[in-house]
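Sequence, structure tokens reproduced for reference:
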Amino acid sequence: MTGVNAGARLDRLPVSAFHRRVFALVAIGMFFDGFDIYIVGTVLGTTLKSGFSTMGQNAAFVSMTFVGMMLGSFVTGFLGDRFGRRFTYQANLALFGLASLAAAFAPNMSVLIALRFLMGVGLGAENVVGYSTLTEFAPAATRGRWLGFMAVVVVTGLPVAVLVSTVMIPAFGWRSMFVLGGIGALVVWYIRKALPESPRWLESVGRNAEAEALLVRIEAEASRHGTLAPVAASTASAPSRALSTLFMPPLASRMVLGCITLIVINTLIYGFITWLPSFFVKQGLSIAASFNFTLIMSLGAPVGSAIGALTADRWGRKPTLIGASAVAIVFGAIYPFVTDPVVLPLVGFALTVPMYVLVALLFGIYIPELFPTEVRLRASGICNTFGRGATIVTPFLVVKLFTDYGVVGVLALMIGLLFVLIVAVMVLGIEPRRRSLEDLGGGDAAEDGSVRAPAIAR
């Protein structure tokens, strides 16, 4: 490959203040993304209890969130590959922040649902571009750990949202949650002007002079931590930027895998986790008791994501995905039959942990790794579009299953989807652990799912 060899030069760098700075700039925006997604459960539990909304309107609220996220994911993929990661990042964050502030003043549930659609566009975009951007900066040998801990930051929004809700909603009402999310997003929008563009993307679109200048600055900063290793010569050919490459080998099977896995994980999180407060309220618990139960279970989110971050580079992506799915199936089968008020949130915590191992692996690590820089955001965006799109109908399905069968019906759906995920990963999955993005981008998949490309030295 001709050019500045951005991938090899980034992969050989020692971890430095530059990496931590990029991580922080991406993470702070991703945190508010997670925070806003997870306030859905507490806000809707409150609006339902107060009579501001009905179960049907709550389902429409969640559904329109995913319509917006589906559109945001799709459009961002094309904008990000065309205009760059940094531009797309800032545009979606501004949209989300302004819509969130407006939602705080919604006069009725119909207006709130409409504004939630706009917020969803920004949320869907953030998820796609955030993980992909960090993927292109993180060294190959520790990429899984960096991306996994980014997922920890995102899902920390779950317990934080629940905890803040227990303080803010009783004192100031549910509208205060949208004020916090909106102001936070706009502050981050200003701070994140310092985020650099991806050298890999700059090189992929032929802006080699800019890529070279940025890499020289990055290398100068990293060299303060010791002598830099020699740059490995790249033997990978430059993949095509044409959209059609996503539907031809070897990327076609990865597209199918990405769509299946994101459909499953979106349904798990937004068909169960975000509905917990509403489930508890409908089962007769008070708002306070509902929030307390949800808070205990939500602590499994950062724990699970941290486990995913620490095991992805050690155990590999495929074994971790399959193992976490199996554990979730076990606790998912137990959960509906637990009635003891002490044991219930503990079993729920044990169920939440493996679900969020999957969140860290799929959203944060695995999907962006499957595709080359030239089409990474478009591919990730399309996979996320299917994932978000499928969950548009999930709220209505969840309401139907819960009404007819209770939590048993909801968990039966989740367990079935987990079996689908296991089969898809076993049959279609590749193992990107400790491999450069350039080698993975066009590498041929072996029969066992590994990629025939040289491994990165430990």
Q: What stands out?
A: Residues 17-50 form the longest helix (34 residues). The domain at 6-226+244-442 is CATH 1.20.1250.20 (Growth Hormone; Chain: A;).
